[in-house]
Design a protein that fits this description.
Oligomer: single chain
Helix content: 40-55%
Structural class: alpha+beta
Number of domains: 2
Order of helices and strands: HHHHEEHEEEH
Number of strands: 5
Largest sheet: 5 strands, antiparallel
C-alpha cells in the first residue's frame, strides 16, 4: 500500500499541472469560439480565437495612427463624461497600463516587516510614490504589494521605509511560486545578474 500510495502521489504531481493547463487553454478557446466564432460566416475550430487575436493586433496597430487615435480619444472623452462609467474606465485603464507596460511589475521581490516588526512578509516593490504621498511621509519610502497566498488577486498594499526593505536575489517566478503554494515551494536564488548585489532598492520611475 505504501508503494501504491507513492505511485499515486507521483501520478498526481504529473497529471494535475497538465490537466489544469489544459483546462485553462480549453476555456480560453471556448470563450473565443462562443463570443466571436459563432458570428463568422465560416466556422472551423480555432477560427474564433485567431480572429480575436487579429482584432487585438489590428486595434493596437490602428491606435498608432492619427485618425484612429483621434477617434479613440473621442471615445475616451465620451466615457469620461459619464459619472459612474468614467471612474470604472479610468481605474481599469490605469491598472491595465501599469500591468502591461511596466517592465518592473512583480519583478523586484523583497522582504518587509509585516504585520509587525518581528515578522517578515514577501512582497514586490511597485510604483514610485506620488508627490502627495511622498510629501506627507517625511522620509524615503516605497510602495510594496504583499499578495495573499493561494489567491494572487488579493493582497495588501503597504508603504514602508526603504531602509526596512530587504532585497531578495531570487527570480520573480520563484517568488510567485512561493506565494501561490503558500510556502510549500521555497524560492531559489537564481535572479538575473543585474538584480544581484544591490544594497539599496531601486524604485521604477512611473506613476499609476
Amino acid at each position: 500500500m505504501k508503494l501504491l500510495s507513492r505511485y499515486f502521489i507521483n501520478g498526481l504531481i504529473v497529471v494535475v499541472p497538465v490537466a489544469i493547463t489544459w483546462l485553462v487553454i480549453v476555456q480560453v478557446f471556448l470563450v473565443a469560439e462562443n463570443v466571436i466564432g459563432r458570428h463568422l460566416p465560416v466556422r472551423f475550430p480555432g477560427l474564433g480565437l485567431a480572429v480575436f487575436v487579429c482584432l487585438i493586433v489590428a486595434t493596437g496597430w490602428m491606435s498608432s495612427y492619427w485618425l484612429p487615435k483621434k477617434l479613440l480619444g473621442f471615445v475616451e472623452r465620451l466615457l469620461g463624461s459619464i459619472p459612474v462609467v468614467k471612474f470604472i474606465y479610468a481605474t481599469v485603464k490605469k491598472l491595465s497600463t501599469a500591468m502591461l507596460e511596466s517592465p518592473h511589475l512583480f519583478k523586484r521581490a523583497v522582504l518587509v516587516p509585516y504585520p509587525h516588526k518581528g515578522c517578515k512578509a514577501l512582497g514586490f516593490v511597485m510604483a514610485e510614490l506620488s508627490a502627495p504621498l511622498s510629501e506627507k511621509t517625511g522620509e524615503d519610502m516605497a510602495c510594496v504589494f504583499i499578495p495573499m497566498s493561494l489567491n494572487m488577486t488579493a493582497g495588501f498594499n503597504i508603504i514602508v521605509p526603504k531602509t526596512d526593505i530587504i532585497h531578495l536575489d531570487i527570480s520573480s517566478e520563484s517568488a510567485l511560486e512561493y506565494i501561490i503554494s503558500a510556502g510549500m515551494v521555497m524560492p531559489e536564488g537564481n535572479a538575473a545578474p543585474n538584480d544581484q548585489g544591490r544594497d539599496a532598492v531601486s524604485i521604477p520611475h512611473y506613476t499609476v
